[in-house]
Amino acid sequence: MVLNKYSRTAITLILACSFISLGIFFRNNINLKYNSLDEYVLKKFPVNTKLELLDKNRDFKFLKSGEGLLVVHFWATWCGPCEAELPDFVEFSKKFQNINFLIIAAKDDLKKVKKFLIKLGPVGSNVYYASDEDGGAMKEFGTLRLPETYLFDKNLDIVKKFVGPQDWLNEYFYNNFNYLSSQ
After folding, report:
1. Same domain, yes or no: 90 and 25
2. What is the 3-state secondary structure (H, E, C) of the chain?
3. pLDDT number for residue 103
4. Is residue 107 within 8 Å of 138, Cβ to Cβ?
5. What is the pLDDT of residues 118-173, one digit of tens each?
6. Per the domain annotation, does 62 fall within a domain?
7. Strand partners, 176
8. Is residue 47 part of a domain?
9. Regarding beta strands 148-152 and 70-75, do their DSSP bridges make them parallel or antiparallel, or are they unpaired?
10. Does 143 lie in the same domain as 102?
């Protein structure tokens, strides 16, 4: 049987629409399975996370509910974008003494971390450096890529998650954090 030009075009369109519909169906099922807010998004700071503060003279008192905003930032020396972003992040933290900043070196060599942090210079009393050598905290937070930053309110409920490097010295961040810290 010989098909004319219009029949072949119709069959091609039907097949194309079928494949597109099937693709959309599978994509939506995958999105529902893997992007469920209830199952995969961190709702509250995981207080049982095992971290080691690099300054042994300090403790985790700032993790008590009601202490104000908390920003948790994951980075590593082996991550180029992390190394580029961290100086601006530390500079940003100096503008908000009423916000606690927990900067976590993830799956990193402690000697390299300390050497890099010495280059950054002194930080405010609101900045805490911690080590997550085994990646346990990354798992608790659901961190998949570095850098990643989490903002928690005074009740340690998640407010916002920032994935990838950010321009922390941008006026947008300053204005938003200024507004949030005044609440």
Report:
1. no
2. CCCCHHHHHHHHHHHHHHHHHHHHHHHHHHHHHHCCHHHHCCCECCCCCCCEECCCCCCCHHHCCCCCCEEEEEECCCCHHHHHHHHHHHHHHHCCCCCEEEEEEECCCHHHHHHHHHHHCCCCCCEEEEEECCCHHHHHHCCCCCCEEEEECCCCEEEEEEECCCCCCCHHHHHHHHHHHCC
3. 96
4. yes
5. 999 889 899 999 999 999 999 999 898 899 999 999 889 898 899 999 999 999 99
6. yes
7. none
8. no
9. antiparallel
10. yes
Are the C-beta atoms of 127 and 95 separated by less than 8 Å? no
| Whether residues 78 and 164 fall in one domain | yes
CB-based contacts of 35-40 (< 8 A; 24+ apart in sequence): 40/142
Q: Tell me how crowded residue 57 is: count the other CB atoms within 10 A of its CB.
A: 5
Query: pTM of the full predicted structure?
Result: 0.76
Structure tokens at 68: 């104000």
Task: Compute the distance between CA of residue 42 and CA of residue 47 in angstroms, rounded to an integer.
Answer: 12
Average the pLDDT over 48-55 and give the result.
87
